[in-house]
Amino acid sequence: MGLYADVPALRVRQVVGDVLVVLWVALWVAVGRAVHEQVSRLAAPGRTIEDAGRSLEDGLRSAGREVARTPLVGDDLQVPFESAGDAAASLAAAGTAVQDGVARAALLTALAVAAWPILVVVVGWVVHRWRQVRRVAVGRRLVATPAGRDLLALRTLAHAPLRSLTDDDVAGWRRGDPDVVTRLAARGARGLGVRPPTTTTAVEAVSRPG
Length: 210
Prior knowledge:
This is Membrane protein. By secondary structure, this protein is mostly helical.
């Protein structure tokens, strides 16, 4: 099953459409990344708080170990420093929590901004292209057989604008005229994006009693 039609004009439109969809996706991925980077900058205060908390915790615990060496009262003097160190650790943990929250917010914001334009266009285009691929596949099967070409001719009569048809088209199809059937089948094939029947296949066109 081919992805593109046989008719050059339709094939070009399909290729251009595919390229435009890829560019659309790339554009919105870039927008999403830019939004993510901008929101992620809000995590800077959290990193500052974490660094300050870690530094303060290390200093207080180090000071506590030093005063713990004081004879007789060292253990008692160490307790306030350990408590202060625990408070500093809590401060550092709060800074980490701020960064985690900002990271989640950055991801969700980027997805909210970029995901829906990508999904709407990609899903719509995939459905559209799938229908085109199916039409081309069906058209190729019809063109390959005399009965299929006759069906394409009938489809042309049923769907073509009335002003584009002539009495000879209708009468020729009813008679099973190979030239008329092939001409109508060629119009139907091009409408499906398929290469029209060749002059060789015209001879094989199905005959229909008048």
